[in-house]
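Aim 2, interim progress. The first record below pairs a target sequence with its structure tokens.
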Amino acid sequence: MGDELQPDDVEEGTRVRVEWSPRGGRGASDAATGEVTRVWRPDEEVEEFTVQRDDDAINVYTDYRKPVVERVEGGLEEGDDPETETVGRLDSIVPASE
């Protein structure tokens, strides 16, 4: 794997792999690889970032003790109120290999 990143290391335009444990702690872990398209940093610390994949996006909310991972169906480009689903808790963020 590579060097693990912290949420504050994430920057727009970088490719990362986000890994998470399933909601409720049962079942296999999952992961998503894509480009970071949005980082919300209202103060000094990153509170939320988005990883865009081919057909959907992943939002990570880092302002929780165990950061929440949410899948956005269809990505963020389709306009109003996309369908979202909380899928788990963040395990790690690593640089994506090309």
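The second target in this work package is listed in the same format:
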Amino acid sequence: MTTFQLLITICVLPLMLLTGFYLYRYINQKLLASETWAQIISFGLLLFVSIAATLCGGLLLMAWLYRLYQH
């Protein structure tokens, strides 16, 4: 059973990392090019929420796949 868990982790972890990295680069570029305070605040919050959603989504996907292949 631990072989499946390791395989799932090896498959999902790079997806999470790559998605987080490219989200960070894209939104951080928008944040640095911001001209108003509203843009700075909104892109900052968007950056935080998008990275958190990516990590939570990846962890939930791993948990769901663990449970799916457990039975």
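Helices lie at 2-32, 37-70. This observation will shape the mutagenesis plan for the next reporting period.
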